[in-house]
Amino acid sequence: MALIVETGTGIREANAYTDVAYVTSxxxxxxxxxxxxxxxATTAAKEAAVIAATDYIDTRFGARFRGVPSxxxxxxxAKATITFNxxxxxxxxxxxxxxxxxxxxxxxxxxxxxIRGANAEAVATNLxxxxxxxxxxxxxxxxxTPQSRHAGAARAGAVLTLTAKAAGAGGNLSVLQGPLxxxxxxxxxxxxxxxxQPLAWPRSxxxxxxxxxxxxxxxxxxxxxxxxxxRAVASVLLPDPAVDPYGGKLYxxxxxxxxxxxxARYSRMTGxxxxxxxxxxxxxxxxxxxxxxxxxxIRG
Length: 300
Description:
By secondary structure, the protein is of the alpha+beta class. The protein is built from 5 helices and 14 strands. It folds into 2 domains: 20-71 and 201-238 and 276-289, no CATH class; 79-189, no CATH class. It has helices at 20-29, 43-61, 120-132, 219-232, 280-285; strands at 68-69, 72-73, 79-84, 93-96, 99-104, 113-115, 151-156, 159-164, 176-177, 183-189, 195-196, 203-204, 250-256, 261-266. The strands form 5 sheets. It has a 4-stranded antiparallel sheet with strand order 7-8-3-10, with helices on one face. Strands 6-5-4-9 form a 4-stranded mixed sheet, covered by helices on one side. A two-stranded antiparallel ribbon has the order 1-12. A hairpin with a 2-residue loop joins strand 7 and strand 8. It is elongated.
C-alpha cells in the first residue's frame, strides 16, 4: 500500500499522518535512529510501520479526540471511454453491464442492435442513442432497447464517454468490454466513495489545553506517530490475545504433576484496557489531544 500523507487539507485516500523522513528526523534528534532496527529497515517496511501507527492511533483514540472531523466528500462517479477510429465489424458486440449491444449493417427488429453507420462519428452517435434510449429507435438502433441501467453516455465527435450509475467506487466494477475493431475501450475507473474523511484528523473546533485552536495536523500527533511507528517496525501494535483451545483469554495457568491437577483462570475484563498493550511514552504524548485529558492514566 502506498503511503499517502494527510496534509491537513483533507486528502481522500490519506492513510498516514506523516512521512518516513519525519519519523527518521524525530528519532535521530533523540539518538534513537537505530531503535528496533529503524535505520536498517527497508523504505517499504518503514512506510508500512507509519501506516500501522496511524491505524493504531485512530483505532484506539479516534472517538476521544478533541473536536470533530473537518471534511466530508461527495461520491465521484466512475467514467469510461470508447474512442472509434473506424467502424466495428458486423456482428461484433459491446457488453455494458449485463446489456450486450450488437453492431449490424441493418436492423432485424431485435433490441440492442446498433447500426454501424458511415463513419466513426456516426457509430458513436448511434451507440449513444442506444445507451440513452434517445432518438432513432427502430432506425439507428433496435426498437425496444431500454435506457441503460449501468451508465449514461455523452458523445464528443467519435469519442463516447460513459458515466457509471453505480455510486462511488462501486462504479469502477461496471463491466465494459468488447473487443471491437477500430475502437479503443478504456474501462470504468475514477469512481470514489464520499463520506467522512478517512482519518480522524484534521479536525474542526479542536482546542488545546490553553484554549488555542488546533489547525491542520498538529506536530504532537506526528510525534506520536513516530513513537508508535518505531515500535510497529519491529512488532504488531495490536496483537491478538493469547487464548487456550477453549477460546478464553488466559489470565493464569497452574499445573501439578502428581496427582495430576490443572487449573486455568480466564480474564473477565472486556474493556479496551484488556485489549491494548501499553506504550507509556507514546500514550502519554497523545494525552493533550484527547477529551478530558487533564491527567491520569491512558487505559485504552
